[in-house]
Amino acid sequence: MIKLAYCNVEDLDLSKAYDLLSKNRKEKVNRFRFLKDKKLSCGAYLLLKRLLNEENILNPIFKTEKFGKAYISNYENIHFNMSHSGKIVACSISDFKVGVDVEYNDPTIDLDIAKNYFYNSEYESIMNSNNPSDEFFNYWVLKESYMKYTGLGFNLELDSFEIVIDDEITLKNDKNNLKFNLFDIGDYKLAVCSKYGTENYVQYHADELL
After folding, report:
1. Considering the entire predicted model, what is its pTM?
2. What are the φ/ψ torsions at residue 175 (nearest 5 degrees)?
3. Are 18 and 30 in contact (CB under 8 A)?
4. How far is Cα 27 from Cα 3, in angstroms, rounded to an integer?
5. 10-residue block means of pLDDT along the chain (210 residues)?
């Protein structure tokens, strides 16, 4: 089982959203200075709660692993991951480990990032594509979804593994047969990595999170 969803939280009613947060999430939201960041933090949490409620996962207890990946301690068979960028929050839940990433597809991105930090073959694919900045973000979200899947995040070097984008998306020399899915959602890229593949995602309106 895997479910993937996203929401544009630009119009999220923060006053209503705040009241629905856990104590810990309220404390986290309060640390943000800007309204945009407060909405992203609220929206990510409420999107997760929406997906969990749909699976009858009630009163989850959240804890964090060594490198900061959150998990639910009282539902050992339920895994989740969240991401946000710009105006978008994304979340995936599964009964197996999962990693998700969403990024604004910025056409002004400095492609030297890929040259200096990506696997050589990935950089070559980016530079040989018809739209290098677009291809950069294809690789970026796929790589980060895998890094988040592992629980290591940026403790895993970007050039220590190779993503291959062909008829299907694979991790080179992968012994676990992981599945990757990549989506264009407006000006954003969305990717998910897990044991399961999915061709589907759900879009929620901000009001549906309240």
Report:
1. 0.95
2. -95, -5
3. no
4. 28
5. 97 94 91 95 97 94 90 93 97 96 97 93 96 97 97 93 95 95 97 95 96
